[in-house]
Amino acid sequence: MKALTWHGRRDVRVDTVPDPVLRDPTDVLVEVTTTGLCGSDLHLYEVLGAFLDEGDILGHEAMGVVREVGSAVHAVGVGDRVVVPFNVSCGTCRMCVNGLQSQCETTQVRAYGTGAALFGYTKLYGQVPGGQAELLRVPFGNTLPVVVPHGPPDERYVLLSDVLPTAWQAVEYAAVPPGGSVAVLGLGPIGDMCTRIARHRGAATVIGVDLVPERLERARANGVDTLDLARLGSRVVDAARDLTDGRGPHAVIDAVGMEAHGSPAATAAQRMTSLLPDALAARLMTRVGLDRLHALHLAVDMVRRGGTISLSGVYGGMTDPLPMLTMFDKQLCLRMGQANVLRWMDDLLPLLGDGDPLGVDGFATHHLPLAEAPAAYEMFQRKQDGVVKVLLKP
Ligand SMILES: NC(=O)c1ccc[n+]([C@@H]2O[C@H](COP(=O)([O-])OP(=O)(O)OC[C@H]3O[C@@H](n4cnc5c(N)ncnc54)[C@H](O)[C@@H]3O)[C@@H](O)[C@H]2O)c1
Ligand SMILES: [Zn+2]
Ligand SMILES: [Zn+2]
């Protein structure tokens, strides 16, 4: 089959690799029809190479049609249309039954002390072959794949694999009071979807912060109060307070993470800015800086006293200092983690009808064949061509 494989920093290729086969009686084999490209993939593309081997298949946002089922699979059958959650979770352990699928005790990667395995996500998360491929082996066939109706286009459902549950959890953890305010840092696919879900769930003021003009514009078109970090610099905090009776938003969602621009450390600044369009690089260098905890610090600063920070951007590293004095003094609540994808299905599936309250139809900006995935990674990292979400068709 064809699959998108990792070969080195900023070097991914579509290779021909052996087809996956059923290994356990509860495995199913899914013929992937659509698969997403995610900000989390950019971490693999740029900085997590130490945890990848050449040839690893990337991708954790897949849906498709069941082609083959193991002898013990009864919950899905050949021909069923399924979405595959990005957590490899068993569905039956103590963590899974309590809705913490990202901590599944059956697939926890004990060698690295990490939580549940993930599709296509390095040795830290089990080195499970990913879904940017023609075929995907999915374990736990009776509990993991989510069956969706035939009929509507894939884009209606594929975001259930990650974007929708991640954004839903981020908003849930933000605990915005009814009629309250929330600021979303980062308007990539996750942040953009957070603004929609926050509004849908009753936030009265939804603020979006980014520095990519097209992303700001897209959120503004959806009724979000946008703040351009590149223009405002540190004044962005005051601007957010001005929109929230001087106190700051009740909650801030960090949908940026450690290096959404591809830089884990200031020393990588030059390398990273060379990737961005000149205008954006200049705005970033002069106004925002390259502190990899920038978004988190911004969240601490911006949020109202007694407010909540919900972190869905991915962070790594052990030694970055946190502004503990301010966090303690402001009496903040901080929640974070990988999404527990299956936990939110019952909330999300009813929202995917024809009314489309979250605007999932048309959410993706780019639909491309899998063969063009290497160029798509580059475009997504550089934020060119107005890209927000790429969906690939194997
Ligand atoms: N918790 C989870 O389960 C989960 C799931 C999916 C993605 N993620 C993470 O969420 C983050 C966002 O993912 P995405 O797909 O939307 O990626 P993305 O890289 O497209 O989006 C990040 C956005 O943040 C903006 N940005 C950069 N620095 C900023 C700053 N200091 N302040 C405000 N905005 C800033 C960028 O311009 C970009 O638009 C990534 O870290 C990703 O790994 C987490
Ligand atoms: Zn993802
Ligand atoms: Zn489990």
Q: Quick recap of the structure?
A:
The protein is of the alpha/beta class and 394 residues long.
Would you kindly provide a written description of the structure presented here, covering whatever features stand out?
There is one protein chain. The protein has two domains: 2-162 and 340-393, Quinone Oxidoreductase, Chain A, domain 1; 164-336, NAD(P)-binding Rossmann-like Domain (Rossmann fold, 3-Layer(aba) Sandwich). Helices cover 26% and strands 20% of the residues. The protein is built from 13 helices and 17 strands. The chain is globular, with a radius of gyration of 20 Å. The chain starts with a strand and ends with a strand. Residues 260-274 have low confidence and may be disordered. The site of one zinc ion has 6 residues, from loops.
For this entry, give a set of tags.
394 residues, alpha/beta, Quinone Oxidoreductase, Chain A, domain 1, Rossmann fold, 2 domains, seven-stranded mixed β-sheet, six-stranded parallel β-sheet, 17 strands, binds zinc ion
